[in-house]
Amino acid sequence: MRAPRRLPEWLAVELTRTGYSDLPQQRRGPRLRVLPQRARQAVIAAGGGRGRAQILENALREVIACAPVAEDTGFTDGLSRAAYTAGGLAARGYAIIGDLERVLKGAADYARPTHERRSTQIIRSEPEAGTRRPLHIEGHLA
After folding, report:
1. Dihedrals φ, ψ of 137, to 5°?
2. Residue 15, Cβ neighbours under 10 Å: how many?
3. What global pTM score does this model have?
4. In sequence order, which residues have a C-beta less than 8 Å from that of residue 96 and are 6 or more positions away?
5. What does the alpha-carbon distance between residue 107 and residue 130 come to, in Å, rounded to a whole number?
6. 40 Cβ partners below 8 Å, 6+ apart?
7. DSSP per-residue codes, 84-126
8. Confidence of residue 110 (pLDDT cuts 50, 70, 90)
9. What separation, in Å, do the N-terminal and C-terminal C-alpha atoms of the chain show?
10. In this structure, how many other beta carbons lie within 10 angstroms of the beta carbon of residue 41?
11. What whole-number distance in Å separates Cα of residue 133 and Cα of residue 117?
12. Are 126 and 46 in contact (CB under 8 A)?
């Protein structure tokens, strides 16, 4: 009887990322709350305030929630909404677009590490669209 072949590293990473593996915790991706916290810090650092930071944080949670499931989770739509929202926040001066793009990339890479090309296209195009429609949210925040 032959011993089974070693699992390819890319497959081990994907199985771990989607929750189908019993690999040790240290080989898993970052904790889910890390990226929204970075998003919050990016918006607050630009003078956006906590309420505005919560808007981007909620959009990023939708992207990050796609990580445990490999397909049919609305990843592209969620990333598009988060990137558009980031552009709207930046257009009103609530955040710096470069900082937000880094946060968006981190969320996308976490949720779909094998979709880098598509994620990059979305992160480059959607914030620009969002900047044409700045978020007017003053009356909606407590």
Report:
1. -125, 5
2. 15
3. 0.65
4. 42, 45, 46, 90
5. 18
6. 50, 53, 54, 56, 57
7. HHHHHHHHTTSS-HHHHHHHHHHHHHHH-TT-HHHHHHHHHHH
8. confident
9. 67
10. 13
11. 26
12. no
